[in-house]
Amino acid sequence: MAVSLSRRGFMALGCSAAASPLLTPVTLAAAPWDQRLVVIILRGAMDGVDVVQPYGDRALAAARPTLLTGEAGGAIDLDGFYALHPALADLMPMWRAGELGFAHAVSTPYRDKRSHFDGQDLLEAGTGFEEGTHTIRDGWLNRLLQVTPDLAAETAYSVGQGEMLILSGQAQAASWVPDTNLALSPQTRDLMRLVAASDPLFADALGDAVQIVESLEEEEDTAMMAGGKRAPGHQKLAQFTASRLRGATRIAAFSLGGWDTHNRQIGRIKPPLQALSDVLLTLKAELGPIWGQTAVVAMTEFGRTARENGSGGTDHGTGGAMVMAGGALRGGKVYGDWPGLGERDLYKGRDLMPTADVRAYAASTMRGMFGLPRDVLEQVVFPGLDMGGVPDLTL
Questions:
Q1: Domain limits at 29?
Q2: Is residue 10 part of a domain?
Q3: For residues 316 and 46, is the Cβ–Cβ distance under 8 A?
């Protein structure tokens, strides 16, 4: 059960800003662990072959003659075979510290249709896929909460109706959306408290909401007085998430968009990569010592074609990459079996061949973080999953 209360909703119930790309929901939940898990959905199908470049594969340069991979494109060597896109250069200290890792040639069970909507639904639902028969009722993080005893909901807030499927379901969770253009005046806050006085549940939620809003406004005012600038939207997501994780929240999920690079990929992939880098660095800085108990997994609905297209981009594909970070992870490594980019190695002659289920890496992370049995992960959290072959990812 999701608990949502919007700052705009206090003043005009029913207003929706779901279509706005500036509104990105953060969903959180409290749980009886010290470990923290952050799941980031990379909406738009991130090109894993560009982000973690297999420059040791001789077929890469021929498949992408203008995308400038490897040394020609300024990529940073990771292990002699893989190189990191230069837009993520600021994350190299994390890599060297063992706090950043990747899983390559991964995908959900989704195949061939290559629809963002279906792909994202299947990614967040965490289920298998049978042509024309899949029915999605809840998300895999919610099912994780359903098998967790002594669960409590964390109060947070949402502007618009951007609820994430990944935490939708029977277990309690809450959501909040930052919006730099909205503010509650003191008079409005007093009025809302008066209206809520006869409803203890709403009064408690409102009190927490106002406290959160005021604390965020205080942080922004302090930054401005110190000569700083207001953080961009993606950094505000990370800052708010970290503020909750420093308290009772143990699980957080949000999304970052901008990964649909059908043309001019050299330029278009840099902003989302920079946003991802900013988010990871902000989480580490804001969490402080809690970073050592934190795992971040960033997943996308599917990969992109192995070959670039005629407009300097890549089209919807199959196999891709998963990004992992955090002090609780065994980083400093690119996990997975590389299938190759030769003509006979590709899925249907066009896509990176998946050699592992991306859900298995998420499950391995949760098994190490929360001690969940393998059969619960394979049968309840991710129905139909086989975790075989995926190593332990946590310390």
A1: 24-151+230-381
A2: no
A3: no
The C-alpha angle with vertex 261 and arms to 260 and 262, in degrees rounded to 5, equals 105
Evaluate whether 96 touches 377 at the Cβ level (below 8 Å). Answer: no
- Is 13 inside any structural domain? no
Q: Is residue 146 part of a domain?
A: yes
Reported as a single tens digit per residue, the pLDDT across 286-342 is 999 999 999 999 999 999 999 999 999 999 999 999 999 999 999 999 999 999 999
pTM of the entire predicted model? 0.85
The answer to whether position 192 is within a domain reads no
**Nearest 5°: phi and psi at 254?**
-155, 175
What are the angstrom distances between the C-alpha of 202 and each of 12, 169, 188? 16, 21, 15
Q: Give pLDDT tens digits for 126-166.
A: 998 765 445 667 899 989 988 887 777 663 222 223 568 88
The domain that contains 299 carries what CATH number?
3.40.720
The closest of 228, 334, 338, 237 to 278, measured between CA atoms, is 237
Domain tally for the chain? 1
Structure tokens at 8: 């705009």
3-state secondary structure of 233: helix
Q: Is residue 364 within 8 Å of residue 391, measured between CB atoms?
A: yes
- Partnered with residue 52 across adjacent β-strands are 84
Q: How far is CA 109 from the centre of its chain?
A: 19
Instruction: Tell me, rounded to whole angstroms, the distance of Cα 374 from its chain centroid.
Output: 23
For residue 354 the two structure tokens come to 């998946």
Determine contact, residues 233/159, Cβ cutoff 8 Å: no
